[in-house]
Amino acid sequence: MNARKCRKGREKRMKSYLGIDAAWSENQPSALAVIDENEHLQGLYRSYEEVVGSIKKEGVKPKGSYPDFDKIFSYFKNQKMDIENIAVDMPVHPTNTGRRRGCDNQIASVFGKYGAATHSPNGKYPGDLGVKIHNQWKDLGYVWETLRQPKRKRVFFETYPHAAIIRYLKLDYRLAYKVSKMHAYWKTEIKEERKKRLIRNLNKLYDYCAGRI
């Protein structure tokens, strides 16, 4: 037997984990990141279309679209990214409840004092989009996990980055890091000072992540 073929046959595919900063509508782009089981970054994408190659990264502003996870996961598979778990920053309830849920209230009760209460889902945002994404992942063989520690293979679950950042960075208040909200964060500061403060906070977040990924 050819030694190279033998080695290839024994080659184990590394598990990967997908995180999605999901827009609650199809009009805005959603960012995706993939890391392997050793917490090494495998892929970073500014939109669903960027994953499947509908747009190029260079010089093109990302735009929103309806996700086709069959195509997205086919791409990941071709890139040897075997997605084990999916963490998404968006309600993906199996039904469009059209209202705030118990879990949203629980998070708000703990993190509200840090300025990190959750947004309320409604019939429009994310509305049916969350349900459709839920069903796509279910059809791909993933199970919706609502327990604290997922123990089953191939699961997807909701996550809340503000809460995670507060805990990991040991903050007294949520981190101001969104470019689009610079003015709201520091209304009395001049533009250059707002930029400096934003960059400082982004670097703080980057330094923490760089120590792990």
How do the helices and strands line up, and which of them pair or pack?
Layout (H helix, E strand, L loop, with lengths): L2 H8 L4 E7 L9 E6 L4 E5 L2 H5 L16 H10 L3 E7 L13 H10 L16 H12 L3 E2 L10 E4 L2 H9 L12 H4 L5 H20 L3
Parallel strand pairs: 1-4, 4-6, 5-6
Antiparallel strand pairs: 1-2, 2-3
Outline:
This protein is α/β, with parallel strands linked by helices and about 210 residues long.
Describe this structure in words.
The chain has two domains: 12-171; 176-213. 37% of the residues lie in helices and 15% in strands. It is built from eight helices and six strands, in the order αβββααβααββααα. Strands 3-2-1-4-6-5 form a six-stranded mixed beta sheet. β2 (31-36) and β3 (41-45) form a beta hairpin.
Name the features.
single chain; 6 strands; 213 residues
Label the structural class.
alpha/beta
> What is the makeup of the main sheet?
6 strands, mixed
Total number of β-strand segments?
6
How much helix, percentage-wise, in residues?
25-40%
Rg:
19 Å
Number of domains: 2
The DSSP helix count reads 8
**Which percent band covers the strand fraction?**
5-15%
**Unreliable stretches, pLDDT < 50, 5 or more residues?**
none
- The helix-strand sequence is HEEEHHEHHEEHHH
- Terminus-to-terminus distance: 39 Å
Shape: globular
